[in-house]
Amino acid sequence: MELIRSVRSMQEAALTVKRSARRIALVPTMGALHEGHVALIRAAQNRGAAVVVSIYVNPAQFAPHEDFKQYPRDLDGDLAVCRREGVDVVFAPTDEEMYATDASTWVTESLIAKRLEGERRPHFFRGVCTVVSKLFLICQPDVAVFGQKDYQQWKVIQRMVRDLNFPVEIIAVPTVREPDGLACSSRNRYLDPLERAQATVLYKALLVARDLFNQGEFNAHRLASAMIRAIELAPSARLDYAEVADGETLMPRSEVRRGDVALVAAYIGKTRLIDNLVL
Ligand code: PAF
């Protein structure tokens, strides 16, 4: 496995792979790798491509009051996971490599990115679209793999790839969950044992919505209210949003259809978690 730290070396390595007529599959991550990332890596390998895992905590997608500084960083642990999984290349650039100090070019998607996460975290999707565009130009992937856990991010990136004609196929991998249903996330590391036990409330709320939907409840407002009531059962939880939205555009719904998506965000203690379930 090769560890590459500079943009130029990564671009050269990508060209070498391309010349050998091998495809490249990129797994973009911010490190602190967990089972969810392992599923992404394995999906990339199933495409028979050379697998590049990028590890970069992207400052551009954090607001000044958010957890950029505390975000878990464990390059040695991440490299061990990548080695064990047979990854070909890890691209782990520094901030200096990724952004000029006076960088002034940004990529934005202006429909899907507006609501939900975009409303609460105005920096977020601009930072994600910009860094993912840069990673595409640096790593030259044919395929890029994202987790459905970040559902809105997946849809924003799909739209960006379509609108900007990136020659990259986007694959989404189903959310990997702990045995009790909590979606794997690097931020789960912030939870103390009591909070960890209560964090399952997000998934429980989604299951409530799915059960009601399967029983014939199609009113989006009533489904959202049921999710809110379920989240409020956990004393450590503070709701951010619970909503059912169009599965492609993330626009709000009044009457829910199959393929729409239930999305929740809540603070468990100080940790903000998100989750979703397609109905
Ligand atoms: O999902 C993530 O880990 C990040 O948002 C991504 C896609 C790697 C961009 O920094």
Give a structural overview.
By secondary structure, the chain is of the alpha/beta class. The chain folds into two domains: 2-173, 3-Layer(aba) Sandwich (Rossmann fold); 186-274, 2-Layer Sandwich (Pantoate--beta-alanine Ligase, Chain: A,domain 2), CATH 3.30.1300.10. The protein contains ten helices and nine strands. Helix 9 (201-214) packs antiparallel against helix 10 (220-232). The chain is globular and about 55 Å long. Pantoate is lined by residues 28-30, 58, 61, 128, 131-132, 150, 153.
For the biggest sheet, the summary is: 6 strands, parallel
**In order across it, which strands form the biggest sheet?**
1-4-3-2-5-6
Q: How many distinct helices?
A: 10
CATH top-level class of the largest domain: Alpha Beta
Query: What percentage of the residues does DSSP assign to strands (E)?
Result: 15-25%
List the uncertain runs: none
* Head-to-tail CA distance between termini: 40 Å
| Global outline | globular
Order of helices and strands: EHEHEHEHHHEHEHHHEEE
**Rg for CA atoms:** 19 Å
What count of domains describes the coordinates? Answer: 2
Strand tally, please? 9
- Please give the CATH architecture of the largest domain: 3-Layer(aba) Sandwich
Distinct small molecules = pantoate
